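Residues pack. Consider this:
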Amino acid sequence: MNLLLIAMIIALLIPLYEACWQEDDVWQKMLALASIATKCSMMILVISVMRDDWMIGVAGVIILSVGNAGFMLLAQLLKRINYQ
């Protein structure tokens, strides 16, 4: 299981590299940060199953379902500002 967590952390670093050091495009950064949020919540779910702690799992589900809603709202605001 530790190998699985290490692989998940490495997969988490790929969009972090994309967000920080690659493009200066705002949309690419938002996409990378949304990917990071999703991967972190999946890691929380895996850890909660490994520890058999369902309170941590509930927090992971809340992050997974509501965490990217802020990015969606920000994307819509940027889209409307650019149209005007």
